[in-house]
Amino acid sequence: MSSIGVKEAKAGLSGLVDDAASGEFVTITKDGKPAAVLVSVEAAEAAKRALAKDRPSLVAHLKLFPADVDLDDEVFARNRQPSREIEL
Length: 88
Prior knowledge:
The chain is an alpha+beta fold.
C-alpha cells in the first residue's frame, strides 16, 4: 500500500487511479495523517458486500455450537454484578 499527500495526489491523480485499478490500495494523507484510501471498484464493492451482511450477534453465533448443553441454563445467564469494588 502506497501513501501520498493530498497535494501530490491532486497532481498525479490519473496515475493513482491506474494504481488503484490494478489492485493497489493508495492511502491519501492530510497533514501527515491517513485521511482516505483510493481502491479499485472491485475492492469497494467487496467491502460494501461485507458491511451489508447480516452478521449474527456473538450469543447467536455461540448458540449454533453443536453441544449437548442447555443454553438457557442459569449457568449461562449474564451476571450483572460488578466483579470487584472500585473507588471513583
